[in-house]
């Protein structure tokens, strides 16, 4: 089994074996989300299902995706009629071109090399419809409570922390990463749903149609 998948399966089998709880970070995008009322929203790296639950409770259809079978199995305990897909982002996204209006990646895009991250974003761009919206949150280089600057350095701001690969972003890197997108929102925010305050970047970008 892939080492990283094994790590995450163990996490979801233990520490996160509880009811998903969500914050309200998606509230500000209500008008954009409403455009996808009749089109499934892809929750990419759904984990324990925080955003999946948020969306389902508000009447959206969701495709919940993760590479941890344990995460998806746990999520199935808390909601019915789930549409789930288990795959590794690095292998591409198993969706048709221009097939969805909104993709969300909440704290799941910061586990890859720079080249892998760029490749995943190209896949996200491929799957999104014209002017489609990509919403994500990623680790900040100021996220000291959750490992920023710790571990064995692999690339700039990308570390092996006790076997777990983890990336942290600054604004310059994010603007470079999304230079071929229309940036609607980018800001460093606090997340307070954990035991300690987490510092993360929140980004909303739209697909450019050249």
From TrEMBL:
Listed InterPro entries: Methyltransf_11, SAM-dependent_MTases_sf
CDD domains to which the protein is assigned, alphabetical: AdoMet_MTases
Stored SUPFAM superfamilies: S-adenosyl-L-methionine-dependent methyltransferases
Domain of life: Bacteria
Signal sequence, renumbered to the chain: none
Matches recorded under PANTHER family: TRANS-ACONITATE 2-METHYLTRANSFERASE, TRANS-ACONITATE 2-METHYLTRANSFERASE-RELATED
Protein name: Methyltransferase type 11 domain-containing protein
Upper classification of the organism: Bacteria, Bacillati, Bacillota, Clostridia, Eubacteriales
């Amino acid at each position: 089994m892939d080492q990283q998948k094994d790590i995450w399966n163990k996490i979801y089998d233990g520490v996160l074996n509880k009811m998903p709880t969500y914050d309200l970070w998606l509230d500000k995008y209500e008008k954009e989300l409403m455009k996808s009322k009749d089109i499934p929203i892809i929750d990419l790296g759904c984990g324990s299902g925080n955003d999946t639950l948020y969306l389902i409770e508000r009447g959206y259809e969701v495709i919940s995706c993760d590479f941890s079978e344990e995460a998806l199995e746990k999520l199935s305990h808390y909601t019915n009629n789930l549409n789930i897909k288990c795959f590794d982002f690095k292998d591409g996204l198993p969706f048709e071109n221009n097939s969805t209006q909104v993709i969300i990646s909440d704290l799941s895009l910061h586990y890859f090399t720079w080249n892998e991250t760029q490749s995943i974003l190209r896949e996200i761009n491929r799957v999104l419809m014209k002017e489609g919206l990509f919403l994500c949150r990623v680790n900040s280089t100021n996220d000291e409570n959750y490992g920023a600057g710790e571990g064995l350095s692999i690339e700039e701001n990308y570390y092996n922390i006790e076997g777990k690969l983890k990336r942290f972003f600054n604004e310059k890197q994010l603007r470079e990463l999304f230079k071929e997108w229309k940036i609607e929102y980018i800001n460093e925010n606090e997340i307070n749903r954990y035991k300690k305050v987490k510092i993360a970047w929140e980004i909303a970008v739209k697909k450019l149609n050249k």
